[in-house]
């Protein structure tokens, strides 16, 4: 059983009618419902809860954290950001969706601006798999077609991903590295592009399948935690002290 | 249940007393015994069997192939080599051990000479994990100490590994990229350095644990097979034929 | 002064009127003319010359080899293929254009099928830079627009590139990793997608600029050649011989 | 002419006699002298200068910044740290030496703890080249032997380097990824391990040669600056606005 926490800023859905129409109970609820068939223990957390719903108790018992944010990135406190970053470095999986590219924890883990091109024009996105043996692509056909999505275009200012799993083609001519893995410390990170708040992207089975695969991939294995600091030699030798 | 085939050239163990003393029934038998506790269906195959034991039936029902060879690389037929390479590209996992770096299928999959420095002097090897969240390092401490091993030293002429999992320190001063992953087509490859035929390396629990982890990692998931060739557009446009 | 040899199979241009119309003296001549302003010493070589124009003398004095082939890959001899592969591994730069993805030396250096999707429909290709600090992208705007090109689509069956420099968007909906670097031995390889024989792609300044940048990037520096084989310890220790 | 600024916290050399004995005018002076033969315009800057010597004027006219710090990382202001990080993302080369692994700008650019194992015992370090065609290894033999150095050991908590150039072997049994490249935004970063303040490492020609090579590699080429934000389509299509 994998403990999954789905974090959503949950602001658009309360104040924008066109978003409420698509996700009446919030994006997090749609994703939680979509993952319900998996053997995940799912919790949700949102910005307006105390500590944004990410108390030490919640973070310390979360195996994989899913993150969606957009218009309220700056309202996430630096303290909670630092805790999320530290937990990822200690092994918690971290799945960052769509506009989460500009979230505080993702930017801190990347060390770059995470900026990109964008356009809201309801255009077609075709997501192609460029890594056919990757577990995050399991059960996914060679492509996923989304009839209407926001465009994100390169240059996407991230470090070179450890693995590139998906690349998108947009109707207006852009491309985007849409599925990217990164390792930071003992934690695994997956960025997945689709999911603008005005489109029913998170009801789409293939999109949910990718997120579900990513949860399993990002689950922290029982690997040894690295040991740091002053260290005795494994092999004796004649020390020369200054 | 993962179908594992352990291939060993099985020559040293028949003709060299010091090897026979360590691996009386062959290296493949020691590895097979060492993996017996896992839920693997294990077969072995050796050079002198018809088609080197790698008939179409065997290859087509093998999920992960483990390979050990040294003095008889050239006796592996080009036809069987081509079949192994094709099966890896189609998804079969491939775990190449120690002197298998010079085997025909590994060299064909790498596109490089796969050459290296070496020395048989019974020196200490310390294998360090440099990728603490990788599934191949699961359950492995920060290091594995082998009291006596053959030295392999850089430059190891392989393509840049997709992932570097282990790096070795040798008593005589060399380093070596000892645990390396590669993807070729739909297949996953893991090269693991230790295992000279005169040392009891393949009885060592940590070494067997790494091999076992690698089998699970290399197991082909049920991903879509890539489609190649002439392709209709996903999105209609006005064709301009020459 | 960089010694560049441009190899072209030079078959289409002799027998297909629509190709002859675009490249009357051969693709190699167009590329050679396009690079003439650089401080390169340029030679050309073609399939029908003795040893395909790639004699030992030519190969041994070539710093960077550019390769275009398509309909006659199988007519390149295995002997010349092996010599090209060896020279690349020893340091010669190798720039593989368009349908050269299926050439014998490129496939041997990759260890994969190098297969892909394709369509000849004169559609628009937009090549985006995803690596803005890479020397191969120097002087190139964020994108190159080619009004009419053959489509190549993912999955492109290559090993994960060491560096991804360009990604293409095609009008029909596909994407393609269009600019990829690889290192093999001491040699640097750049694959660059555009250049179907029926379009005037190799007269386009941005395309020529990329090829020119790649030549400079692939030029072999005066690095130490790796040393292989039996090796004395750098640091003395007590040997334990079997 | 490449504008190089060498930044040194310059504290040890003033207060520790054994450091003063090795670097009487500061580590920065030794490095500046060592690079004097190159066509670099070299400035130095230190912690105690106003704005740590890194005024906007200095940063904006620096092509490549070299950084050495150890005991006073926390005294570097957050404001100057942010400026250095931004300049790197905009293209300034950044060469981080030895204990600079724990400097504020390096940690911010990596997104990890950058922690490691260490031991001060004057042991031998042997630095091996694992990337023989990399420009940072130009003119360097297969190895560099440093008779006495501080040990740094894995796991080194950095993101997977874009390129691994050097790996160290330490007498006490450890290994370390000693030469690592990273790209962040438009900037190139090179981390180079050796250089403890009590050893004359920065007088060693091979060490200076690596630093000099790295300066040339990290020099920002005249690549197009990425464009971000709202973007018009390259290829017209029927917009569907919400």
From TrEMBL, chains A, B, C, D:
A matching Pfam family: ThuA
Domain ThuA-like: 3-218
InterPro entries: Class_I_gatase-like, ThuA-like, Trehalose_catabolism_ThuA_prok
Listed name of the protein: ThuA domain-containing protein
Organism encoding this protein: Paenibacillus terreus
């Amino acid at each position: 059983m994998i403990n999954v926490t789905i974090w959503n800023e949950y602001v658009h859905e309360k104040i924008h009618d066109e978003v409420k129409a698509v996700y009446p109970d919030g994006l997090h609820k749609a994703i939680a419902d979509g993952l319900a068939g998996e053997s995940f223990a799912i919790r949700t957390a949102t910005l307006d809860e105390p500590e944004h719903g990410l108390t030490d108790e919640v973070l310390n018992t979360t195996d994989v954290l899913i993150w969606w944010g957009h218009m309220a990135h700056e309202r996430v406190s630096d303290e909670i950001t630092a805790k999320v970053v530290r937990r990822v470095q200690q092994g918690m999986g971290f799945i960052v969706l769509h506009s989460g590219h500009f979230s505080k924890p993702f930017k801190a883990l990347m060390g770059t601006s995470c900026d990109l091109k964008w356009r809201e024009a309801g255009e077609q996105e075709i997501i192609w798999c460029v890594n056919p043996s990757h577990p995050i692509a399991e059960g996914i056909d060679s492509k996923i077609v989304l009839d209407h999505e926001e465009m994100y275009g390169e240059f996407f200012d991230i470090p070179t991903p450890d693995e590139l799993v998906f690349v998108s083609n947009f109707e207006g001519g852009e491309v985007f590295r849409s599925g990217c893995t990164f390792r930071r410390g003992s934690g695994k990170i997956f960025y997945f592009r689709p999911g603008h708040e005005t489109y029913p992207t998170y009801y789409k089975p293939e999109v949910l399948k990718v997120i579900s695969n990513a949860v399993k991939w990002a689950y922290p294995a029982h690997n040894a935690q690295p040991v740091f600091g002053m260290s005795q030699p494994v092999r004796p030798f004649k020390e020369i002290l200054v």
